[in-house]
Write a structure and sequence with these properties.
InterPro entries: Aminotransferase-like, BCAT-like_C. With 279 residues, this protein is of the alpha/beta class. It has seven helices and eleven strands.
Length: 279
């Protein structure tokens, strides 16, 4: 169905959205839901676009102001709510990162709170600390992005991981995906499907293994984000974008860093290896 819809548009490149409409949204009791295939004209950024060599600026927004009922679901309700936030951002701001307050971890005094950074309005977030530890939120706190899941699967969880010296992640493959929801009248799927990513060729490993990296699935704190040497965001339509400024303050030296450049090159190779034409 997707291939047919794409072919009918005559677009050379497009963004395709699959929208599932539940029974109650289709006119009431007794009427079945359906799947809507939305094809919109879209041209991806060229690989030499300034966005990748200069980086982007982001701002912050407390998640409490948006009241997401289910962060792990890409619902029409969420897409509608975030439009209001996007409409208020500065024209030079590329993305808005969502923050929330929580009690401090570790041995800090009970009752103290800190701010942690979850994800972008339409992107997942990677924070690179000075010790080359990558922090990214997971579970039901965020929307499990396709690009972020593929990166984690390929770089840290595949047999040809880019960081073989790092301790193995205790999380299963596709660490960003939350546990399957309990069955409901509108959903009888017992589990989420695997992406079945083909492991990168072993010949790539030596090229992308420096510096060794480790991965922790948890949101970075705002302090960690401001002190990070690199910050990156990604989405299905924009595989990886360097963040070089957060609310007017530089990230690291204010330029895309070594890890971004390495990961970006890896993404381009992986995209070439895995891509399939719809028609």
């Amino acid at each position: 169905a997707v291939s047919v819809c794409f072919a009918l548009t005559n677009f050379s490149s497009a963004r395709i959205r699959l929208i599932y409409q539940a029974t109650e949204l289709i006119g009431g009791e007794g009427k079945e839901g359906g799947l809507v295939v939305l094809v919109e004209r879209w041209t991806p950024f060229s690989h030499d676009h300034p966005l990748f060599s200069i980086g982007v600026s982001v701002s912050l927004c407390p998640v409490d102001e948006i009241a997401r009922s289910n962060p792990a679901s890409k619902s029409i309700e969420w897409i509608t709510k975030r439009k209001h936030i996007y409409s208020q951002k500065n024209k030079d701001t590329y993305e808005v990162l969502l923050t929330r307050k929580r009690e401090k971890r570790g041995e800090e005094r009970e009752g103290d709170v800190e701010v942690e950074v979850l994800e972008g309005m339409g992107t997942n977030l990677f924070c690179v600390r000075e010790d080359n530890t990558i922090l990214t939120a997971g579970g039901t706190d965020v929307l499990p992005g396709l690009s972020a899941s593929i990166l984690i699967d390929s770089l840290f969880l595949s047999p040809t991981s880019l960081s073989p010296s790092s301790p193995p992640s205790p999380l299963p493959s596709l660490a960003l995906l939350p546990p399957p929801p309990s069955p409901s009248p509108l959903s009888s799927s017992p589990s989420l499907p695997s992406l079945n990513i083909i492991p990168p060729p072993r010949s790539w490993v030596s090229e992308f293994s420096s510096p060794p990296l480790s991965l922790i699935i948890r949101p970075p704190t705002l302090k960690e984000l401001r002190e990070a040497k690199e910050v990156m965001i990604c989405s299905a339509s924009r595989p990886l974008v360097p963040v070089t400024e957060i609310e007017g303050k530089k990230v690291g030296n204010g330029k895309p860093g070594q890890i971004f450049n390495t990961w970006n090159k890896f993404c381009l190779l992986l995209l070439k290896q895995q891509s399939e034409f719809l028609c």
